[in-house]
Amino acid sequence: MSVSHEPAGVPALNLKAQYQSIRDEIETVVLNLLESQMFVLGPEVAGLEAEVAAYCGAGHGVGCASGSDALLLPLMAMDVGPGDEVITTPYTFFATAGAIWRTGARPVFVDIEPDTFNIDPHLIEAAITGRTRAIIPVHLYGQAADMDPIRELAASRGIAVVEDAAQAIGAAYRGVRAGTLGDAAAFSFYPSKNLGGFGDGGMMTTDDPALARRLARLRVHGMEPRYHHHEVGFNSRLDALQAAVLRVKLRHLDAWTALRREVADRYRSLFASHGLEEVVAVPHERPGNYHVYNQFVIRVPAVLRDGLREMLATRKIGTDVYYPIPLHLQTCFESLGHRPGDFPHAEAAARETIALPMYPELTEVEQRHVVGSIRQFLAGYASSSMTTDRAA
Ligand SMILES: *Cc1c(COP(=O)(O)O)cnc(C)c1O
């Protein structure tokens, strides 16, 4: 491989490049907002709610302070609480299980599919009890979970489905966008998400008008109208500043998603052209899924993973591990009584995955540098002696 202009480094995420490309549009709406001095909820938030709902094809959008709250509020609105159980995956960001715990309910984990990293629908039925109130599938890295069997099972047992779509705005499953694949969905506008604000923010979508109204009430201390409190909620309002910025960015989202998908295709062909498929498993995009690549996550044999990351770091190539400790093994969930080995696919993923640099503006030169560096690192190892969980 000949690289004429080797980049000085490749960050895992490059928010400055995105900002540069829309700076004028952003400055206009931010300055308008400063003139209005209306900082919390208000018309910008209502506008974003309508636009995100329309984008997903959902009846209603309700803004809130974070993706974490966007998971907690629907559970509260469904009256999930102590004595209840909620099924989810152990291989996700902490907030998914944290929201369940905060209601007083018990998180019940179900292992993942080794190829998509999403909850394995075939293992869910065995985890259902008389106390199961909801299932939270996570569309991890931007690829929808296998929703049809999950919804069928949930419907037959009278269990709610709340999508954790924090990483998956714009993703589709059999032609239907995330946000309309369950009873309610949670989105995050954390800056690293595909639609990222200038701070924290979140959104819930649902087709159920009564649920939407209750969510909108719960995010303002259960208040409706002013100073009349029907139930105890909390403060989870969305800032107008975030909404104004996000409305600008939403207009670019499909173009950015298309670029993310091109970046993913380029990674795939680069790994293939280097003959690395034996050692490096690239993401599997399941037929029927439209993956939006919030992350491009490869798997390598566990013995090589950390060494490879260190070597890439010396070349200023940014990588991350989402997530190094599966949730059933977190200290705060010790009382659930789990042990290593309980969810072998999640545990293997935690040892073998690396998220490579991924953002719409990533260039082919940068990608060649990333893949070329990985090839150099792996050149010294015999692939035959190394396996990942991919074929399990
Ligand atoms: C980011 C994320 C969340 C939480 O969103 P915040 O806005 O950071 O609170 C929840 N679940 C998943 C899968 C996420 O990636």
From TrEMBL:
Signal peptide, first to last residue: none
Location of N6-(pyridoxal phosphate)lysine modifications: K193
GO molecular function: pyridoxal phosphate binding; transaminase activity
Entry keyword Transferase: yes
Keywords of this entry: Aminotransferase, Pyridoxal phosphate, Transferase
Pfam families, A to Z: DegT_DnrJ_EryC1 (PF01041)
Protein name, UniProt field: Aminotransferase
Species name: Aquisphaera giovannonii
